[in-house]
Amino acid sequence: MKHDGPVRTALIAEIGTSHNGDFAHACALIDAAKEAGADFAKFQIVYADEILHPDTGFVDLPGGRIRLYDRFRELETDPEFYGRLSDYCESAGIAFLCTPFGLRSARELIALSPTHIKIASPELNHLPLLDACAKSGLPLILSSGVSTLADIERALERTAGAKERILLHCVTSYPAPEEDYNLQVLESLSAVFGVGVGVSDHSLDPILVPVLSVACGGTCIEKHITLSKTGSGLDDPVALTAEQFAEMVRAVRQAETQTKEEIVHGMELIYGERKVRAVLGDGVKRLAPSEKANYARTNRSIHFLRSMKKGERIGERDIALLRTEKVLNPGLGPEFLERAIGSVLARDVQDGAGLEWEDLLAR
Predict the structure, then answer these.
(1) What share of the chain is helix, strand, coil (3-state, %, to 5)?
(2) Which domain covers residue 219, as residue numbers?
(3) Who's near 128: CB < 8 A, 6+ residues apart?
């Protein structure tokens, strides 16, 4: 059976932070995204303190080993930078899209009046951020990598007041194996939650996952774009070149005119039946094998912002909702933030540690 009416897939070119704060480079990426056929050029407003603790660990980059926190600090720019990018996108004829990572970046983004707000997978459980974005009156696009069905349900309940919500299935691994995508889960998610669905794809192939997502009812695809895979951007190694992105666009537009059976058969001729069936999966929502180890470490949890002594009372500025990432221990989930504030410590705690129930006395 063919799709009911003409369905045009929204295509997001994820530029992220690969511009490294260089406006001319960002504009070149916007131009490349537009030329490749993308509908949105997407960025990220980065403030390191909104994302992780300084002691979260190190990352190995082409230029050497650096604290991950310091790398994010390098990606911070003046708020006016994103206003200029939004203006440039408008002049280039492509929609400006952006991801905030905390309340400050959300306020700055909302002030730019974008058409949508994009919530990244690690922030799907950042409840205060979801609240702020839902109250903006703007449509939300929520990625759901490294999340359970319960996590998705809570996020959608929290954003019920938003004008519109689109849920992107995602595998939080860089790069993500195509076989981990279980794309038939798109049909399951759409049926269970009654929202539009799509895919945020971190796999390396420009065609397989995007095209099969269309077969499974996806109407939105996000894929990283770069001018060079050897660039210094954090995501450049897993991004598509402009030529590859254009190849994806052509394949997706063709798939939009086909039935699911036709799409699947065409992909099997190219990739083989076993590969395609593995990518389609069984449609049951579960953590993918390649992202299981990231659960609770990539998502947000409560962390201490200073070392504290037994008997001290936790204030609002003593804890924050952060990604755990490399070496710290995960804390309690964001749903316990209000419970933690005002509680008295049952033992000494270290700066950066995840807050645990054993740390707390009754109020």
Answers:
(1) 40, 20, 40
(2) 10-280
(3) 103, 321, 334, 337
Q: Is 103 exposed, middle or buried (0-12, 13-18, 19+ CB in 10 A)?
A: middle
Q: What b/e sequence results for 287-307 when a residue is b if at least 16 CB atoms lie within 10 Å of its CB, and e otherwise?
A: bbebbeebbbbbbbbbbbbee
pLDDT tens-place string over residues 199-228: 999 999 999 999 999 999 999 999 999 999
Please give the structure tokens belonging to residue 187.
Answer: 């049909």
Residue 286 lies in a domain: no
- The per-residue pLDDT for range 273-326, each reduced to its tens digit, is 999 999 999 999 999 999 999 999 999 999 999 999 999 999 999 999 999 999
State whether 70 and 215 are in the same domain: yes
- CB count in 10 Å sphere of residue 204: 18
Question: For residue range 223-236, what is the model confidence (pLDDT) as tens digits?
Answer: 999 999 988 888 89
pTM greater than 0.70 (yes/no): yes
Contact 42, 12 (CB under 8 A): yes
Strand, coil or helix: 169:
strand
Q: Are 37 and 13 in contact (CB under 8 A)?
A: no
- Domain assignment present for 235: yes
The answer to whether the beta carbons of residues 152 and 174 sit under 8 Å apart is no
Nearest-angstrom CA–CA distance, 64 and 52 = 20
